[in-house]
Design a protein that fits this description.
With 296 residues, the chain is an all-alpha fold. The chain has 13 helices and no strands. The chain has a single domain, classed as Na+/H+ antiporter like fold (Up-down Bundle), CATH 1.20.1530. Helix 3 crosses helix 4. The protein is globular.
Length: 296
């Protein structure tokens, strides 16, 4: 239970931050095979991008508080750390994207531009995390958006190979992370922490449905209505994957509850891979094309 002596409130915050990251790659791939609306896939991928960046920043902030106090989180310190990390990462990425775009335009060659952008991603992450102590994930995201915008008129000349290169790198790093997951995961996690895992699965699913439908209700009234069928697909398709695993593996063993959090996260990820992802196709077939008209 939250605020249990062995699992304080800051531990619940830490677990929640990790599980807020989503990985819709498998679901989006299924959407493409089933010819679901492209806007739905774009919506899920964009939401995941924001989720992942926010999850990493929240994880860093809560972890810093947890290591300092071993259980007593201060709201002011947490908000200050979050703000500095969040906006600092965006600024670093903006500058890195500007520099990278200038270099790409200077070299004017496709393969050199691709290599420049790959180096830019790793460099902006390292500078943000190690030198400036702000969010490396947000720095990379901001750098990518900035360079994409600045190079939009030269996309055919310079950026044709970028997507395939990052696709290959993404698959490679996914493989590495899941190999690490297989090496670290133990059966005792599921036998000893089965109740905590069940609670985590239920809480993660409930939070997903509540958050998606809440945002859907707000956009329906004030911005643009999201089809009701899409909300159900997005809720069920918000699987947890690579980012959640990486953050769980990054937990320091100094925390007395690291094993419990890691077990809960791994349990949710396994549930996502074995239950949510395989059954997402049924939801897509049944609900992806059900829409409501704007203003309805």
């Amino acid at each position: 239970a939250i605020n249990h002596p062995g699992f304080p409130f800051v531990a619940a915050l830490l677990c929640g931050a990790i599980l807020s990251a989503t990985d819709p790659a498998a679901v989006v791939s299924t959407m493409k095979k089933l010819h679901a609306p492209k806007d739905l896939g774009t919506l899920m991928e964009g939401e995941s991008l924001v989720n992942d960046a926010t999850a990493v920043v929240l994880f860093s902030a809560v972890l810093a508080v947890a290591l300092q106090s071993m259980g007593g989180a201060t709201t002011g310190g947490l908000l200050g750390f979050f703000s500095a990390t969040f906006f600092g990462g965006l600024v670093v990425g903006l500058i890195a994207g500007l520099v990278g775009s200038i270099v790409c335009l200077a070299v004017g060659e496709r393969s050199a531009a691709t290599l420049t952008l790959v180096i830019l991603a790793f460099a902006s992450f390292y500078i943000a995390e190690k030198w400036l102590h702000v969010s490396g994930i947000l720095s990379v995201m901001s750098a990518a958006i900035t360079s994409k915008f600045l190079l939009r008129e030269h996309e055919d000349q310079l950026l044709q190979d970028v997507q395939s290169t990052w696709g290959w790198l993404g698959q490679f790093f996914n493989l590495v992370v899941f190999v690490l997951l297989g090496l670290v995961m133990q059966f005792s996690m599921f036998s000893d922490q089965w109740l905590a895992i069940l609670i985590a699965i239920a809480a993660a699913m409930a939070a997903r449905f509540v958050s998606v439908y809440s945002v859907g209700l707000l956009t329906h009234r004030n911005v643009y209505p999201i089809p009701t069928g899409w909300l159900l697909v997005m809720s069920w398709g918000g699987v947890r994957g690579i980012v959640a695993v990486v953050l769980a593996l990054a937990l320091p063993v100094e925390l007395p509850y690291w094993w419990t959090i890691q077990s809960m996260v791994f349990g949710v990820v396994v549930f996502s891979m074995l239950v949510q992802a395989p059954t997402a196709g049924w939801f897509i077939k049944r609900y992806a094309n059900k829409a409501i008209k704007p203003g309805a």
